[in-house]
Amino acid sequence: MLGRLNHVAIAVPDLDAAAASYRNQLGAKVSAPQALPEHGVTVVFVELANTKVELLEPLGEGSPIAAFLERNGSGGMHHICYEVDDIIAARDKLKAGGARVLGDGEPKTGAHGKPVLFLHPKDFQGTLVELEQT
């Protein structure tokens, strides 16, 4: 079911400073910021040869990233994203096996313009998992 690793997401309290660190200190190519109101975040992507790192900061007071940063003031790994060929088939198989899909269970459009779902971290060794349809 799983395809390749799409990205690792890191929540940060200051997106501009984090992007500058990756760009200036590590020499990475960093995308322009993209606001995703449906997810309550603003993101940039650090482009790597084999995957991406997503840096995300809260967008608005109700952002789930704001709550994460309250517990982890300097930021940290928020989730890992895997690619799947068919997100509905993956969702249905996971739910049939007892995994919990967050939200209403219906895919939302992610930062890459593709359908995404999030899986409960308690079902995956404490890690929030995002699935993105390729």
How would you sum up this structure, described in words?
- By secondary structure, the chain is an alpha+beta fold.
- The protein has a single domain, classed as 2,3-Dihydroxybiphenyl 1,2-Dioxygenase, domain 1, CATH 3.10.180.10.
- It contains three helices and nine strands.
- Strands 1, 2, 3, 4, 5, 6, 7, 8 and 9 form a nine-stranded mixed beta sheet that branches.
- A hairpin with a 4-residue loop joins β3 and β4.
- It is globular and about 45 Å long.
List the helices and strands and how they pair.
Blueprint: E1 2-11, H1 15-25, E2 29-30, E3 34-36, E4 41-47, E5 52-58, H2 64-71, E6 76-84, H3 87-96, E7 108-109, E8 115-119, E9 128-133
Parallel strand pairs: 1-5, 6-9
Antiparallel strand pairs: 1-6, 2-4, 3-4, 4-5, 7-8, 8-9
Feature tags:
single chain; 134 residues; alpha+beta; 2,3-Dihydroxybiphenyl 1,2-Dioxygenase, domain 1; nine-stranded mixed beta sheet; 3 helices; 22% helix
How much strand? 35-45%
Return the string of H and E elements: EHEEEEHEHEEE
**CATH fold-level assignment:** 2,3-Dihydroxybiphenyl 1,2-Dioxygenase, domain 1
Name the CATH architecture: Roll
Radius of gyration equals 15 Å
List how many beta strands DSSP finds. Answer: 9
Provide mean pLDDT, rounded: 96
Class per helix and strand makeup: alpha+beta
**Principal-axis shape:** globular
What's the total helix number? 3
Q: Unreliable runs, pLDDT <50, ≥5 residues? A: none
Counting structural domains, the number is: 1
Largest sheet properties: 9 strands, mixed
Q: Assign the CATH class.
A: Alpha Beta
Percentage of residues assigned to helices: 10-25%
So, the CATH homologous superfamily?
2,3-Dihydroxybiphenyl 1,2-Dioxygenase, domain 1
* Termini Cα gap: 12 Å
